[in-house]
Amino acid sequence: LSLHAPEGITAGPISEDNFFEWEAVIAGPPETPFEGGIFTANLSFPRDYPLNPPTMKFTCPMFHPNVYDNGVVCISILHPPGDDPNHYESSSERWSPVQSIEKILLSVLSMIADPNDESGANVDASKMWRDNRDQYNAIVHDIVKRSLGL
Fold this sequence. Notes:
It is an enzyme of class 2 (transferase). The chain is of the alpha+beta class.
């Protein structure tokens, strides 16, 4: 990841003393309401990684259908391996030990650009994204400004 980081993403351990806690910086994808923003998040890896996925939590304000109010990211690749108890995802969409940190971050970048409002972690953002895109975009535009300290 440090040699071939995807464009718009930087990530690495927060300290040399703990390789289970990472910080990621993600640039808002071009041609989306998030364009121009800089968004920070933490990745926390479990002790049994790579058997189980890390959790990812935005440490900056984020209004997105697939991000809980507390900043936790909700996408299939970060869900534990195996069958989905709700029968929404197939096991192939969920975590697998062959996944990489790069794949996680690219999936989050894709999620930011193209929300899944059918699996909303933030119901208000999902509903607004579906029913009132102008209001949704205005809120996101404000978050982009705040991410830049404006």
